[in-house]
Amino acid sequence: MFPRNTVPRQRLVYREDMYPPPTLAPRCYDYNHQRLAGVNNFHVPGLQRFPTYEWKPRPLSPVPPHTPTMTNGRKRQNEDYSPHVVKRQRLDPPLTRAPPPRCPGQVVAGSSRASSAGFDSSYHSPSTRIQPQVTAVPESPNILLAYTKDKLSGQMVELFEACQQQTSDLVRKETCRAQLQKDIQSVYAVARLYLTGSSMNGLGCRSSDADLCLVLIGNKRPDPIHVLSVLQRFFRSLSYVEKTQLIRAKVPILKFREKGSHLEFDLNINNTVGIRNTFLLRSYAYADLRIRPMILVVKKWARHNQINDASKGTLSSYTLVLMVLHYLQTLKEPVLPSLQRDYPECFYHLMDIDMVPDGPKNIPRYISRNQSSLGELLLGFLKYYATYFRWDKQVISIREAKALPKNNSQAWRNKYICVEEPFERNNVARAVHEKMKFDAIKAEFAKSCRILQDRKDLNSILPVRAIINEEFSRR
Length: 475
What we know:
The protein has 11 helices and 9 strands. The chain is of the alpha+beta class and 475 residues long. A hairpin with a 4-residue loop joins strand 8 (394-397) and strand 9. The longest helix is centred in the C-terminal third of the chain and has 21 residues, at 435-455. It is globular.
């Protein structure tokens, strides 16, 4: 896949100023995820360059224009959401292998997005550097004030602003990734190392570990355990790596730490679906100002209440993210659409990995008429899973933006929680295999919903100040 004499393929093009600046207000929050010129840039002498990932997320105005939102025209079963929109929906349709068209700039039928035209046809390749530098992004403050009209919402913003991953955190991770790739290529010459997961999708905390995917392509499929064992021995010779540990899980990983710090890494081999869902989740993360604070608070809540650890039979962070996105898609006035359904060509499941970061860049902005505050959305999220969602009959699917019927296939049969992986369509919640753990998860949703509805205070379900202090101690 990576012949040295291949002519570089044409890149998807995009326009840097495709997103208009927001309306200013007295209090603003800047959620621009600063671009790093070196992040996921794979150019080294003698090897073909991959396109760098440089995508400035779009700011949104807190007061949406009067444009129609996406609806499916079906009757809702309650005033907030309808988890039962499942008629005639196949759970596992056959996957087409026809090559997709390039990402359009026009509106897809049924979408509420405005069109974006006039993309710049030029592509400027970045210079190569091992020590990355932050590329300055013009500051266009994004306004969250309209969604923080109550105490609970204000507490959520406070927690988010204190705990969200900073540019300096990403610089550290990228510096280590770039150096690791250079060193690994002395063992595997055509290796490409991707930074994935919450570090790249915009949903990370300051204390988040860094996920790495090592892509090795050849005539013979590499054995992950063998490759990771080789790397474990090799890493002992690197001065900046310590505490390596090989985890022989279903997806084997090599855990290690940056020497002298708290920064931990999980490295896998050829788990390329992780690269695909990184950029899918990044697209959702920046689709609305409320997404990132909402998801960070939910993850902190779940971790505090001991239901956020797949190794102990509860929910993984990835599962929690999909659960939040699903809830926001199923509201009477959706906060989010299904990006895969509206723009399948931008998230094509067989797109070459080196093109995946470019896929979402041309998606026009999405405007939601839902003006619920962060606090209202958090309470609604807890209520949805405590009261309305049918765990025994439904499958969570952000791919279709609805709850699908649980059939008798192996992926869903006898599973307590069913959450569809948006590309591979397997169950990412399969770690919850004990009824006791499942009951504990449901009980936590019900208890927290009851308490939060009564007190409207985030501290009633989460020790905000203690969590902020813990994040600061991990710097």
